Amino acid sequence: MSDPTPAEREVRITHVFEAPREAVFAAWTDPGQVAKWWAPDGFEVPPESVEIEPRVGGRFHLTLMESAGPGRFPYRSEIIEISEPQLIVLKAEAIPEAGIEDTITRIAFEEDGGGTRMTLTSGPYTDEMRGNAEAGWLALIANLERALATP
User: Fold this and answer.
1) Paired residues of 134 in beta bridges
2) What are the residues facing 112 on neighbouring strands?
3) Structural domains of the chain, ranges and CATH numbers in brackets
4) pTM of the prediction?
5) pLDDT tens, residue by residue, 108-122
């Protein structure tokens, strides 16, 4: 059996939001907005834990906290490419205890009628982690959808 190709080790999700591209891009780069949608069910992101420097070499840091427990999980990445409002590319640090190696997440934003087509590609992931990563990104995109719909 051959090793999986890089594309087979990635998660790729496309979603269309009924919001302007600038608004969707801002939801990824404004710390207050990120704190509202980044956490999956059972977690929260304290707004004071979010540090985003929207520039190449800038930080994209936050901490996930269990809503009903003591667990704290830092997410640390570097912005390695950014072009407002078209593209954000993040390089996340490995989390060896979770079986996650360094990952690259690319978020592209394209106008789609009056909305925005967002394409997220993230990886590489191990076979064991790919499904979890995809489920996690889908949950975060659903949260983002709700956050963008809330005035």
Assistant:
1) none
2) 115
3) 10-149 (3.30.530.20)
4) 0.90
5) 999 999 999 999 999
